[in-house]
Every structure is written in C-alpha cells, then in structure tokens.
Amino acid sequence: MSKPVLLVCLLVILIVTSQFEWRQPLVELDTATSSSQKQQQISDREEAVKEKMIVYFICS
C-alpha cells in the first residue's frame, strides 16, 4: 500500500475509534443494573467491534 493510502486509512480508523467511549468505570456505582441494561451494553460493544472490522477491511 502506498503511504498516502495508508495515512488516510489510519486517519479514518482514528476518527471512528475516537467516537467511542473506551474508559470503563472503576467501581460499578449501581450494582442493581438490570440484565436488559447489561445486554444492551453488550450489544453496543458488539456493534462497535463490527464497525471497526468493516473499517479495517475497507482500508486493507
């Protein structure tokens, strides 16, 4: 891959990944989180991984 194409792909990956919140709370303040909320969090994370995979395969 040429350098400009590689730089553009890295820039796109940086922009996409900067849109996601990666920091996890150190202490779970609400210990009574329902299973539906936990399932939604898992689904959101899975969706983020899928989006990253799409960007990766587009750029490679």
Order of helices and strands: HH
User: For the report, how would you describe the main beta sheet?
Assistant: none
Q: How many helices does DSSP assign?
A: 2
Distance between the termini: 8 Å
Number of E-type strands? 0
What is the alpha-carbon Rg in Å? 16 Å
As a percent range, the share of strand residues is under 5%
Contiguous low-pLDDT stretches (5 residues minimum) are none
Please tell me what the overall shape is: elongated
Structural class: mainly alpha
State the helicity in percent bands: 55-70%
Average pLDDT for all residues: 76
Protein name: Peptidyl-prolyl cis-trans isomerase G
GO molecular function: isomerase activity
Keywords: Isomerase, Signal
Question: Quick summary of this structure?
Answer:
Residues 1-19 form the signal peptide. The chain has 2 helices and no strands. It has 60 residues and is mostly helical.
